[in-house]
Each structure stands twice: as C-alpha cells, then as structure tokens.
C-alpha cells in the first residue's frame, strides 16, 4: 500500500521532507505501516515509504484533531470502520491485546504471567491475546488495534497503530527506567482513547529521563531504550 497516497486520499496534507535523515531509524521501519517518531520534535509524525520521506504539513493539526484520525481510519479500514462504530461498546467480553516485543528491545518479561492473572481474575469477561510484534498489511495491523478494547505494550514503533483505535480504548504504554517519552499519548487522545503510562512505581519518570540526558546523549539513549520491561502482573491488574 502506498502510505503517502493513503494520507492524501484521507485529506491529510503532507510535504516532502528534504532536510531530515531517517537512515538511522531504518531498523524501525518495516513493510506496511511503520512510522518512526522524530526525536527532535515530539509533535511530529515523520516516516518513510520506500525512498519517499514525508512529514505531516502541520504536526499539531494532525495529532490534535480527532477528525483527521477518523478520516485516516475511514480511508484504511473502509467497511470495518463503519461496522465497529455502529456496534454498542458496552459489551462483554472485552478484548485485551498484550504486546511483549519478544526478541527485540524493551521486551516485556512478564507478559505471559500477566495474561494468566487477567484470566484468573476476570474470567470470561476479558479475552486476552498476546503477540510479540505486528506483522502483515496495513489493514491487518490497523484491525489488530481497532478490534481491541485494552492495549498493553512497551513503548515502540508498533504503537503508531494507535491511530486506528476506537474511542474509549484503554492504552497502557510501558517504559523502562530513565526512558520516558511522550510521543504516542497525544495520538491516543486524538483517537478518543484513554492514555496510561507504566513506569517504575518509586521513580520520577521525567526527572529520571532528564538526568540521563536521553535526548542529548545517543549512546545513553541506545543503552536505555534496550532495557527490558519488568512490569509485574500485580501492577497491571491494579490498573485494570
């Protein structure tokens, strides 16, 4: 799928980005829907499709307007968008999507134990699905998020698909110590979701990240962003 054309067809204006080098982010950009957030501008939504680099014409306009998120969902999801939006939301079971990023950076160590605890406590009221990473076409990845009521995942590029969540979807984003970034929370809010952050309980996320100089020091950033996530099942259940 030509993602640039998808944005244009959805009525979201984009501009060629001549000054940005995304080669160092290439590992995070795969086939289909893979967008890397510009670390120099947390409000931006830059990415790459083949060799075509682009950015949203007005990043704040895109992230802060629910209408643009709806337009993108309608364009990508088609009939699936209208089908789900015509359904009543207060139904059981709820569908929880747990992403553990197994085998890559920021792997969530206790995802399987958390899934078992959710099933034990909530029974048939919550159906849990665990995946390691998103694969497939743009439509398939978008539907994975669109069909979920609860999403729990470490911080990572897979969360770009939060653009496809439905209103009232609860999103718990998990961060390693000293690596707290506010990139995806605005996207959750723009889609009408509920954004929650998971961070070590006895720490100050902003202070830790600032003192580690995550943005300024590339080596430190690369080391910290590889740290596994140790969010416990008990801590997750307290949020639910």
Offer a quick outline of the entry.
This protein is 33% helix and 16% strand. With 240 residues, the protein is an alpha/beta fold.
Task: Give a description of the structure.
Helix 5 (111-122) links the parallel strand 4 and strand 5 (126-131). The protein contains 10 helices and 8 strands. It is globular. The strands form 2 sheets. A 5-stranded parallel beta sheet has the order 5-4-6-7-8. By secondary structure, it is of the alpha/beta class. The model is unreliable at 15-64 (pLDDT under 50). It is 33% helix and 16% strand.
**Oligomer type:** single chain
What structural class is derived from the secondary structure elements? Answer: alpha/beta
Beta-strand level of the residues, as a percent range? 15-25%
Please trace the helix and strand order, writing H or E for each element. Answer: HEEEHHHEHEHEEHEHHH
Strands side by side in the biggest sheet = 5-4-6-7-8
**What general form does the structure show?**
globular
How would a crystallographer describe the biggest sheet? 5 strands, parallel
Termini separation comes to: 36 Å
State the helicity in percent bands.
25-40%
Radius of gyration: 18 Å
Entry keywords:
alpha/beta, 3-stranded antiparallel beta sheet, globular
Q: What is the fold's blueprint, element by element?
A:
Blueprint: H1 3-9, E1 14-16, E2 47-49, E3 52-56, H2 59-63, H3 66-77, H4 79-85, E4 94-99, H5 111-122, E5 126-131, H6 138-146, E6 150-154, E7 170-174, H7 185-190, E8 194-198, H8 205-211, H9 218-225, H10 233-239
Parallel strand pairs: 4-5, 4-6, 6-7, 7-8
Antiparallel strand pairs: 1-3, 2-3
Helix pairs in contact: 3-4, 5-10
